[in-house]
Amino acid sequence: MRSFTYEKVASPAAAATAIASTSDAKFIAGGTNLLDLMKLEIETPAHLIDLNGLGFDRIERTSEGGLRIGALVRNTALAADEKVRRDYGLLSRALLAGASGQLRNKATTAGNLLQRTRCPYFYDTNLPCNKRSPGSGCAAIGGVTRSLAVIGSSDACIATHPSDMAVAMRALDAVVEALRPDGQTRTIPIADFHRLPGDTPHIETALEPGELITAVTLPKPVGGTHIYRKVRDRASYAFALVSVAAVVQRDGSGKVAVGGVAHKPWRVEGAEKALANGARAFVSGLLADAKPTKDNAFKLTLVERAVASVLAEVKG
Amino acid sequence: MSNTGDPHISRRNLLIVAGASVAAGAAPGSARAQKPLPMGPAASEPVTTKVGMIVNGASRSMEFDTRTTLLDALREHMHLTGTKKGCDHGQCGACTVIVDGQRINSCLTLAVMHEGSSVTTIEGLGTPGNLHPMQAAFIKHDGFQCGYCTPGQICSAVAVLDEIKAGQPSHVSGSLMGAIDLNEAELRERMSGNICRCGAYSNIVEAITEVAGRPA
Fold first, then answer.
1. What are the structural domains of chain B?
2. Integer Cα distance of A208 and A23 in angstroms
């Protein structure tokens, strides 16, 4: 690990000042992803700004009847929160399907959104990667691509986003609250938060340099049946090959996002009207523009079958 | 061994910075600590800072390289070598300790981030003459073979029972709102962050089940 200086800040204003006045600085909260990458020297910040003194650890009702989740709420606390379990069961289920108990105790809501891909070529510093080293090329394309993206990828990058939580938040129409270094706040719908790789796969989110996530809000509960179906190579403690986050209503309408297939949680609202016609009809719209490789074409079938399994469970 | 920062880095730094004029056994950290901390860009030499935490009930205050993980702080600086380094990347759980009541991977957190924290390691759970019930149950049920993952398994298991008591659901819980059925599937899911290369899992589940108060 490269040497770095460290400070712990006590206010968002101090965090903004610190990030703006120090070059190569990074925020750290749970640290479970950042420290892993720093050990491998994939991340090499010269200065760490510890956000754990900011509070941001509450889950509160919004005036609209929704929920405001502080950026530093740990994954364990979020999954176990009674309001979340009762009204947003999909979110609890997605969180509990991810990582291990130890990691969820540390990992934060904002950090989960910001975690980096687990593409094996991103992790192998001997190989080119446009995400790790912009312009160096993509070793994954033409390599072993079984776990990688089938849709929304580019000639520069075929990585997937690894989060389970973000897939549920996409189906739940979450909104990210952020604070710019100049003190201005803004909101970013989750649909616009994660970017597709295009020719700048190293720019993964809509956040500007130094911008800080303060909270994630959920709209008021929509009822329905909440199911998170994660398909992986082992029964626990593994990233998704594919996952399906679904909120399905009694009349067959629903909101469905899919994980493990793209650089961001994948949802096509326009395809959801076909949900009542079954999994095949819905998935043919959802993944209409898929460009799988020989290694990962199985994901298209897997998504369809996972959606079919979810719809069957809804019917009971 | 120096109590300053990562011992390997400290030795190297001692050679580079201080040359041969520093007598063997001198503490390089105490001299470094008096220098103002450089603020990025990248400091070319280790940056150290003083951290105080409570470890197994005792106050410990030491100078650490900012890069020192809690795991290395415990093992290399406090000489609490019960906590094991397996993968050092949060994948195996051998480094599991309990911090402020919650189990975490000590390899994926920095010592400097734990000012004021209360840390419990395997040495703090029980002693050879006065075993924690979970330690005794692991022995009774042969919950280990080589033993390398065992301290992490036991710290994790103790915390798992607290998590169940607190009503925290898991991936395999049938209902998010109902009572948690303490069955084998629940324990296996909750313990999945602790890998046992010898494959003692079934005996580990038996040990935890006994401590949880049900016949194994």
1. 47-123 (3.10.20.30), 126-216 (1.10.150.120)
2. 15
